[in-house]
Amino acid sequence: MAEERRDDGIPGQALTPLVEVSGLSVEFGGIAAVHELTFAVSRCEIVALMGPNGAGKTTTFHLIAGARQPGSGRIMFDGRDLAGLRPDARCRLGVARTFQITQPFQELSVTENVMVGAMMHHKRLPDARAAARRYVELVGLADKADAPAKGLSTGQRKRLELARAIATRPKLLLMDEVTGGIDQKSIPGMIELVRRLREQGLTVIMIEHNMRVIGEVADRAIFMNRGVKIAEGTPADIARHPDVIDLYLGDAAHG
Amino acid sequence: MFQPLRLNALLTAVVAALVVLGLPLLGVGSYVLHVMILIMIFAIFAVAYNLVTGYLGLKTFGHHAFFGLGAYGSALISIHLGIGAWASLWIGAALAAAFGLFIGLPILRIKSMAHVAVVTLAFAEIVRLSCSNLKGLTRGELGLWGIPAFQALHLPLVGEVVFSPANKIGYYYLAALLLGMTLLATAVILRSKIGLAILAIRDGEDAAESLGVNLTRIKLGVFAVSAFMVGVAGAFYAHYVGILTPSAAIGADLMILVIAMVLVGGLGTFAGPLVGAVLLTSSAESLRFLDQYRLLVYGGLIVLIVLFAPRGLASLRLPGRRVPERPA
Ligand SMILES: Nc1ncnc2c1ncn2[C@@H]1O[C@H](COP(=O)(O)OP(=O)(O)OP(=O)(O)O)[C@@H](O)[C@H]1O
Ligand SMILES: [Mg+2]
């Protein structure tokens, strides 16, 4: 999969990972939220980021997307050091993210929300609107396209987050618990969507608690606890890892 | 919301424009024209303030600084450099915009609303105190007088248009033109990509930024445009009244009045600042007979409106007219 996409045609480019996080640390009030985190994600890979509450998963996303500055460590993206770049600049380079605590633009309609993301690649507003409509349909919100975002349910807001993010046509998509709050019967559709996005060349890191989703789409999983990576491997490996079972699956499997 | 113009809105705008343009033809007195001119000056100020506070969501309390900068800038330039008011007005406004950029840079990085409010208010106080103390230049509270009026114009069809205290029609139409330009510029901005970014920033800065919106560029740009508009209002005011004092042109009560107008009319609505400017300016004038009780009644009126129409008068619907249902 990873070798199929050489979007810039530079030999060897496809072999270097799209994202390389090394020695990333940040602390809040003296407590390490992320500590010496190192991992890499290849082009067109889907990686699940797992871990119990407070493990530092969302913080890792904040750091990659530029919403927080790391205390130390480095993030390379597409051959560039992201240090010092603001979130909008990172978005222009191809990093998009959804928010775990959804942040819809309340006073705008669903389509207008997505237009904000689509504006980046469309000079004219009508073009941005047309593109936004397509993304709204893609995530299954077509019937809400003109409704104000403030009336959406949790699951619909998660879909909106996703539509806005992919409207920026990213290379890397950071999905923070997008299946949380979505009704069970729409989950297969979501999985299908993520697969299709990957076929179009997208790389995905997804924070996900649902083992079924992880098993079905993720090529690899990274497990964190208290800011530290404690396991990495195929989803099946992670599910068998003794520390993971101890920390997480023990109660999550029943809950 | 960021939507295509509705027909009623367009009709209302056309009717309002016709009323404003036709009023002097009805032979109304000089006093009515004066009140209308004040309304239009305040309307420009309120529209510009609403752009920053209502739409962008940046709660600033120092916009009267830009009114004063436009007023004193244009007045001093036309007095000392012999440049006519027609040109100095734009220079004064540009000066206000330059200061807008200057003060905009530091405040945009501040996340706390209260701090933004204090910093902008302090900035305006500094501008006012500077104008008070630079007596050699501004004559301080004694008042800067001898500000040249706009030179007479020779227009085809209309003939000579004069600008004098005795004949206010020229000022009236110039104020209407400036207000029209302000409204047009505001509408164009709001309905463009920048307008969409502005609304996104108001509803969620972090989300907007994560979607590629450059917060600094949009906020600074909008702030400078708003300062420019307020500068235009101030400069026009200077050449209209012909005398400036720091307390009248840069006083905090000016800002408070404009904030009241925007709140009463409807923060973040297009028509709100206009409704507020009309209502508060005309009621302030018509309550003059109450003498020392005037401010009491006036304040009570504002409190009542804000209590019973918290989203402003412009957001109220006439009874009997169906409100378009918004799915909640
Ligand atoms: N802004 C902040 N200030 C202080 N502490 C914070 C802040 N943000 C996160 N933390 C702390 O950092 C740690 C990691 O939080 P993070 O949100 O990254 O966890 P998470 O893995 O996403 O958890 P969850 O599954 O609950 O979403 C937690 O202990 C959290 O309390
Ligand atoms: Mg989280």
Secondary structure tally, helices of chain A: 9
> Whole-number radius of gyration of chain B?
20 Å
- What are the segments of chain B in which pLDDT stays under 50 over at least 5 consecutive residues? 319-328
* Spatial separation of the terminal alpha carbons of chain A: 34 Å
Q: What count of structural domains of chain A?
A: 1
User: Helix content range of the residues of chain B, please?
Assistant: 55-70%
Instruction: Give the helix tally of chain B.
Output: 14
Assign an overall shape of chain B. Answer: globular
Major beta sheet of chain B, specifics?
2 strands, antiparallel
The backbone outline of chain A, from C-alpha atoms, is globular
| CA gyration radius of chain A, whole angstroms | 18 Å
> Would you tell me which CATH topology of chain A applies?
Rossmann fold
Mean pLDDT of chain A, nearest integer? 89
Strand runs of chain A, count? 10
CATH architecture of chain A: 3-Layer(aba) Sandwich
How far the N terminus sits from the C terminus of chain B, by CA atoms, comes to: 14 Å
Oligomeric category? heterodimer
Structure write-up:
Chain A has a six-stranded mixed beta sheet with strand order 6-7-8-3-9-10, with helices on both faces. In chain A, strands 2-1-4-5 form a four-stranded antiparallel beta sheet, covered by helices on one side. Chain A has 255 residues and is an alpha/beta fold. Chain A has nine helices and ten strands. The N terminus of chain A is likely disordered. The radius of gyration of chain B is 20 Å and the shape is globular. Helix content of chain B is 68%, strand content 3%. The interface between A and B is medium-sized, with 34 and 25 residues. The structure holds adenosine-5'-triphosphate and magnesium ion (MG). Magnesium ion binds next to α1 of chain A. The site of magnesium ion (MG) has 3 residues of chain A, from α1.
